[in-house]
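User: I've been trying to design a sequence by hand for this structure and keep getting stuck. Would you show me what you'd pick, starting by listing the structure so we're on the same page?

Assistant: Good idea, let's start from the same input. This is the structure you sent:
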């Protein structure tokens, strides 16, 4: 990534570019913008991770609550963020049978009822079957375990989204 491009962005440009690396949490991009200049993409990612890690439990739960249910209401309504739409599509969650959709809906509801936030997994690193298996398995975790796992999954999603943005910036600077 051309870090000069990133470091030269004003606040609004930075927020436009990085505002959804953590789903529906532009506040995080706004907060880390002040950490410029970043020496590398890894340094930017570390700043984001450090910010998340510094949050109290309620802030981390809030981040998880910003994520949509997998193959849920937002997907059916067409209101997912473009990032989430692409990720869920890539994992095969946009082409579920009615039986699979019902199963996932029931599992999502049970999970949310237990933890008070939606199930979060980096769908780009998993296939449909693994996602359902993980949802079944993780529902038996303790709330503390699940908070930690959920935040680690958020960081994986962030990592991949940063790589996508990096590719876009690299291509734009080559033109």
């Amino acid at each position: 990534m051309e870090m000069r491009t990133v470091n030269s962005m004003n606040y609004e440009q930075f927020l436009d570019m990085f505002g959804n690396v953590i789903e529906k949490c532009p506040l995080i991009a706004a907060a880390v913008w002040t950490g410029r200049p970043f020496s590398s993409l890894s340094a930017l990612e570390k700043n984001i991770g450090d910010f998340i890690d510094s949050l109290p439990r309620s802030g981390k739960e809030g981040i998880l609550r910003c994520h949509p249910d997998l193959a849920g209401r937002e997907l059916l309504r067409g209101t997912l963020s473009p990032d989430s739409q692409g990720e869920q599509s890539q994992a095969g969650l946009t082409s579920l049978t009615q039986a699979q959709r019902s199963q996932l809906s029931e599992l999502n509801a049970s999970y949310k009822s237990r933890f008070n936030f939606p199930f979060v997994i980096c769908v780009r690193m998993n296939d449909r079957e693994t996602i359902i298996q993980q949802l079944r398995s993780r529902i038996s975790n303790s709330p503390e375990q699940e908070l930690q796992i959920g935040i680690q999954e958020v960081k994986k999603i962030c990592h991949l989204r940063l790589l996508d943005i990096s590719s876009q910036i690299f291509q734009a600077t080559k033109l």
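That's my pick for every position. To get oriented when you compare it with your attempt: Residues 140 and 146 are 9 Å apart (CA to CA). The first helix runs from residue 3 to 7.
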